[in-house]
Design a protein that fits this description.
- By secondary structure, this protein is of the alpha/beta class.
- The protein folds into three domains: 190 residues, P-loop containing nucleotide triphosphate hydrolases (Rossmann fold, 3-Layer(aba) Sandwich); 81 residues; 116 residues, no CATH class.
- It is 45% helix and 7% strand.
- The protein is built from 19 helices and eight strands.
- The chain has a six-stranded parallel β-sheet, sandwiched between helices. It has a two-stranded parallel ribbon with strand order 7-8.
- Helix 2 packs across helix 3, helix 7 packs across helix 9 and helix 10 crosses helix 11.
């Protein structure tokens, strides 16, 4: 640890955590827990790394672990629970409240990395270590616009035609590079070399520095800066390391397989020498490598920097049957850089059938499977894609057969810019635009058809105070009570 982070400060006068647990009291634990779950819940007070396969009851296990620790007398104000995102935080808060209901126990605060980083950022501003910033966080659109402007200005002239033809790709490359630099301690030049980009993209280094110069001149921060700026400040200022470190007794971190360097370093500084840290994750489920996540943090780095942690496993899934578990094991075993953990279907889990369909047309096959099913069966059906473009032919088939479906807002066939523009023009020439609610007319004009449609359909209409993220192109067919951000009834 000291070799990796030479400015790191050791704790000096902090009372040591108890090394011997009290006699475990397990009579309050529910009968449905597995032996693996019980072992994790009643483990001693030491660093630990838990490998949890998909659907293994991880959330319930961690909630019972926290209840067990609270019943042992630990101070909830000195317990920190870190979740990967807001959705995971809300789900875990709900589960913890359910597990601890009627216990009379005070519960620890559940935070996300970004919430903790923002809290530290504001404190460092008050302490004078960081400059102030606007409360208006940079949006993806603002970042993309600046990236596009800088790409046009800084990219080599021989890329000009390619940039004009592939604007989206170049903008995504630029914004992705900015984010990746901010997931590590390394300067932009080193990150560029590590990514193996070709020399024609070397302008990205200047683009990063120019973007940061613009951002700081505006006093703005992005979501990435909520972690990047305070962690860099802590790393470079020993007084801040003493300020944030050694305040917690126990820290629990979920989804550690998707941790990047900045998050790992923040955890290390906050933990100091006092806290016992438990990290939970599954290297086989690392899906955020494009954002700087590396499975090496849960596979090796945590064990290197946190004193020989206890290694535990949740290997039984309650999500699917034996056939799916066996299929997943056969597939994932080809991965390198993983723990030798097999996923087993728990005996209480119903069997899951698998049928392989070989077809030249995915859309026709999906339609054939769905036809004839009842509405309840359709409501319990999910279609998964590797990329959103694969949804288009299937969506068109479903729309043609008037089979209702739901899709994430802004995704899928009907939300592409080209389809929205064509749909808006058809609305104008068929006279159907005037039948839309004012809110949908305004949003359609704003996002799809340009100045001509704005003059034809939205002139003189009052501005809606709040608009949907994506207007339904045929909103007059909407079922009562449907929301366009989640419903695709017939034509949604």
């Amino acid at each position: 640890m000291r070799e990796r982070y030479p400015l790191y400060q050791q704790a000096v006068t902090i009372p040591a955590m108890p090394t011997e647990p009290q006699i475990p009291e397990t009579t309050n634990l529910p009968d449905f827990l597995t032996d693996e779950q019980r072992a994790i819940i009643t483990a001693g007070y030491e660093h630990s790394v838990i490998t949890a396969v998909a659907g293994s009851g991880k959330t319930s296990t961690l909630a019972w672990r926290i209840r067990y620790l609270l019943e042992q007398g630990h101070d909830p104000d000195r317990m920190l629970v870190l979740m990967f995102n807001r959705s995971a935080r809300v789900d875990f808060e709900r589960k913890l409240q359910e597990v601890c209901a009627r216990s009379g126990l005070a519960l620890p605060e559940i935070r996300t990395y970004h919430a903790m980083g923002l809290r530290l950022y504001k404190r460092f501003v008050r302490e004078g270590y960081l400059p102030g910033f606007s409360d208006k966080i940079l949006t993806e659109q603002e970042i993309s616009f600046q990236a596009w402007q800088l790409t046009r200005r800084l990219a080599p002239e021989d890329l000009a035609d390619e940039i004009r033809r592939n604007k989206k790709d170049f903008v995504e490359t630029a914004t992705g590079f900015i984010d990746l630099v901010k997931t590590t301690l390394s300067p932009a030049e080193i990150v560029f070399e590590e990514l193996g980009y070709s020399d024609k993209h070397k302008y990205l280094i200047d683009l990063f520095h120019s973007f940061e110069q613009w951002r700081k001149s505006q006093g703005r921060i992005s979501y990435a800066d909520m972690l990047y700026e305070p962690v860099m400040a802590i790393h470079q200022n020993p007084p801040l390391q003493r300020l944030v470190g050694n305040k917690m007794d126990l820290i629990l971190v979920d989804e550690y397989q998707d941790t990047n360097e900045i998050q790992h370093l923040l955890l290390r500084y906050v933990a100091g020498d006092r806290a016992r840290v438990t990290v939970v994750g599954d290297p086989d489920q690392t899906i955020y490598e494009f954002r700087g996540a590396k499975p090496e943090f849960i596979l090796k780095r945590f064990s290197d920097e946190f004193e020989s942690p206890l290694e535990q496993t949740l290997s039984y899934t309650f999500r699917y049957g034996h056939r799916v578990a066996l299929l997943a094991n056969h597939l994932i075993c080809h991965n390198t850089g993983r723990k030798d953990v097999l996923c087993h279907s728990h005996a209480s889990t119903p069997g899951t059938e698998i049928t392989l369909h070989r077809s030249e047309s995915d859309a026709d096959t999906v339609l054939q499977i769905l036809q004839g099913q009842s509405e309840p069966a359709l409501a319990g059906t999910a279609i998964l894609f590797r990329v959103w473009s694969q949804s288009v032919p299937i969506e068109l088939k479903l729309l043609a057969r008037q089979i209702p479906y739901r899709i994430d807002a802004g995704k899928g066939a009907l939300f592409s810019r080209e389809v929205q523009a064509i749909t808006a023009l058809l609305m104008v020439v068929t006279g159907k635009l005037e039948n839309l609610p004012d809110e949908d007319r305004l949003e359609l004009a704003r996002t799809s058809a340009g100045d001509g449609l704005r003059r034809a359909g939205a002139h003189g209409r009052p501005q809606a105070q709040e608009t949907r993220r994506s207007a339904c192109p045929t909103a007059q067919l909407r079922r009562p009570g449907c929301r366009t951000d989640q419903c695709l009834c017939r034509a949604h």
